[in-house]
Structure formats: structure tokens, C-alpha cells
Amino acid sequence: MTDLTRRKLLASSASVMAGAALASTSNANAQGAIPQVTAGTSPRPAPAIIQGLPDVLVVGGGAFGAWSALSLLEKGAKVKLVDAYGVGNARQTSGDETRQIRAAYGEDEVYSRWAMRAYDLWHQRQDEFGRGMIYDNGVLSANEPEDKLAVEMDIFNRLGIPYEVIPHDELVRRWPQGRWDDVEYALYEPKAGTVKARESLIAVSENFQAKGGEVDMAHVMPGAMSGGTMASAVMSNGEDITAGSYLFACGPWIGDVFPDILAGYIRLRRSEVYYVGSPAGDTRYTYREFPNMWEPHAGAYAMSDIDYGYKVVPRFGIGIDPTDDDRVPSSFLMLKVYDYLRQRLPGLVDQPIVASRVCALEISNNHHYIIDQHPEASNVWIAGGGSGHAFKMGPMLGEYISDRMLSLADDPELRDLYAIATHAPHA
Ligand SMILES: Cc1cc2nc3c(=O)[nH]c(=O)nc-3n(C[C@H](O)[C@H](O)[C@H](O)COP(=O)(O)OP(=O)(O)OC[C@H]3O[C@@H](n4cnc5c(N)ncnc54)[C@H](O)[C@@H]3O)c2cc1C
Q1: Nearest protein CA to atom 25 of ligand 1, as residue
Q2: Integer Rg of the chain from CA
Q3: Which CATH class is domain 3-92+199-265+367-422?
Q4: Taking CA atoms, which of 35, 185, 198, 426 is between 20 and 30 Å from 54?
Q5: 322 Cα to the center of ligand 1, angstroms
Q6: Which CATH superfamily is domain 135-191+266-364 in?
Q7: Which is nearest to 133 in space by CA: 156, 158, 99, 104?
Q8: Residue nearest atom 14 in ligand 1 by C-alpha distance
């Protein structure tokens, strides 16, 4: 860490913790988990780092929270990460087997830029963790409307992102295992593909702990806010948990955690994911030989087999309760999986579904992320609203959120884009 960064961190730690380091009551202290500081015992609260308190308590170990926790720690903060069900749990939106990484985002250039930076970071982290996390099998976007494609090509040209527009005959030649009757052309991104989801988060959590971060399982809600800060958060057993600042990255639950300011801001959709087994020893549908398919107009999108099954995600839109609903796939959508395979990969039509997941998709009204401070407490940060495209950005989100929280960088354009005020409840 440079001296400059360290100085900035300490300055920001002191400022975000002013007042907030004064804990109210804390039985956690009795357990030895978090030392207690009683309100009023110190005329001017020392930074929590000196008192043994975490600088930052991160609530939620999904893509937003886990990567932010690691990044905050690496920038010098003392960080505790808690999740109600554990990092990589089956209820979280990040808890599936895989997620896609691609840079085509229509006219939203910022996400194309972020996706490319995230792509490089995934590779760096993969090398650092010594664990397979990203597969460069490329992504084909089939039959995108011409005006959208033109905008994306323009952005790719400006940002130096490699791509090809592949006509029908060439698709047939390059990927003969596919059926391309309905595809006139496809945008091919070679610097794109698949990232492991749940497994990557477990790797992040392990790396975070190896570097000195603390991970715990607890359900945590915001505590009382006064004087522009929040002194402590509250665990479901009633105990307070105290830190200098707080990051709530609660995925589909974020609206319930902050009903006063986010009620109606996040729409939840049940999303079923199916993995269809490749025939034994057949590599044609795997990441080795076939790219991912992005084709919402076909009623599904798909990702090649990373030795877990060929993934098909049919488009569907009913609500879900992320806490209480059973995650059992529906027979109706299984039929849609085979409709898609008949259309695109007929060689898999006779193969069985070997695994499935039911995920809670959390969508903001404008599909942009929400990353902002709580309007009543400057030491409380909120991050979420992934809107079906946040997992790929994990390492980038970690960099960005940690920079914002530690006052190391703050791009005004992004600050506005992700501000709560830029969003609204769903109509
Ligand atoms: C089917 C599907 C496909 C997708 N495909 C892609 C894709 O291809 N590419 C892509 O980039 N993105 C994709 N996404 C989106 C991406 O997965 C999400 O945007 C991202 O995983 C959201 O991460 P999160 O950290 O906000 O939420 P989560 O992963 O849900 O994490 C939130 C965590 O907070 C915890 N929590 C909640 N409340 C509390 C509380 N009060 N106390 C303690 N802990 C709490 C939960 O237990 C949970 O672990 C997809 C999403 C779905 C559903």
C-alpha cells in the first residue's frame, strides 16, 4: 500500500467512524467477538481500528458483499463479513453453479468497460487463488436487432474489445453441433464466457479469511440512526453488532432490510436454471468446443457445459419469496428447456437434466445497480439491484465499492448512475 493510500484510508476511516464507533450495548462483547465501547466514555471516539472493532461490517456474502469485503480488507480496512445463511448459500442469487461474462450491453458503455476490466480481474484472481474460476469459451449473441448491434460494435471499436459478426453459413461451418436455421448472424465475443458462481465466492471468502478477514453467520438488520450515522446494527438474537461503517449487500432481501427507503425498488423474479448432461465423453457441448448463447428472443439463453451440464435458462416471470419458497423446478419449464434444445442443439434432446437451481432474480426499475449511502446515515452503505448482470462484475464491484467507502475515488457519473435517487419503485 502506498503512503498516500494509507493516509487516505486512515483519514476516511476516521471520518466515517466519527460517532459511529460509539457502541450502544453489545452482548457480542461478552462472547469476546467484538469489544464494547460504551457511549460517552470517550470524548472523541478513536477510530474503531484501534479499539479492535471492525472498520467495516459487510452484511451479505454474495457477489456485491464478498468481493467488497475482500477489496476493503486489501486496502487496509479491518473487515467482518456476515451472512444469514453463509457465503455461497443456496438461497442467494449468486449461489448457482455458473454465470456469464460478456461485454455487449447495448448503449450502456459503462458496463462494457466494466465487463472488460472485470474480465481481466477474474483472470488475475484466478491466478492468485490458484483455482479455476473463468472459462474463455466466448459468447454468441444471436440475431440482435441491427441498430443495437451497430451501437455495440461502435462501443467495442472505441474500447478495443474484440468481436466478430458471424454470418449464418460461417456459424454452420464453425459449430456444426448447433442448429442455425433461425439465425441470420451472431455477434461473437471471444473475450467472454463463463465464471463459476458459488465456487468463486467460496474462494473469495477463503482468500479474505487467509488475509485476516473475519467471516460469520448472522442475520443482521440496521440499528437506530441519529445525528447522520448508525451506531450499531442488530442481529436477529437482539444483540448489537458494531463497526465504523456498514455495507448492506443483501441481494433480493435489500428492500426488506431498508423498507423505509427501498420498498418497491427491487422486483423479484423466480428464475429456473437447468443443466442437461452431455453424452459420456462427448466434448461438443462443453466450454472446450462451444460458446455460450445469448438469445433472449429464443425464449432462453444457454451456457456450455463446464463439466456440470449444458445450462439452459428459460425466460419466465413469476415472483418468488427468497426466504420461504421451495426451490423445486417446475415441469412446465423443463419442457421449455427441451424446446430450446430442439431449436439450437438437437444432439442434447435425448439427454437428461442432471441438475437444476431455482434462483431469485432481483431487478431494479432501471436495471442499474444501487450503490449509495443511506440518506440518514453516512456510515451505512447499500449495494445491490444486480438486475441480472452483477455477478460477472464481482471483482470490479469490490474495487469500486471499496474505493467509494474509503473515499479513495468517486466518479461523479457513476455516483449518479448508482444513486438511490436515480432509481424509483417499480411501477
Ligand atoms: C438465473 C440468473 C442468471 C443470472 N445470470 C447472470 C449472468 O450470466 N451474469 C451476471 O453477471 N449476472 C447474472 N445474474 C445476476 C447475478 O447473479 C446477481 O446480480 C448477483 O449474484 C447478485 O448478488 P448480490 O450480492 O446482490 O446478492 P446475493 O447473491 O443474493 O447475496 C446476498 C446475500 O445477502 C445475505 N443476506 C440478505 N439479507 C441478510 C441479512 N439481513 N443479514 C445477513 N445476511 C443477509 C443473503 O443470505 C445472501 O447470501 C443472474 C441472476 C439469475 C437469478
Answers
A1: 62
A2: 23
A3: alpha beta
A4: 198
A5: 11
A6: D-Amino Acid Oxidase, subunit A, domain 2 (3.30.9.10)
A7: 99
A8: 388
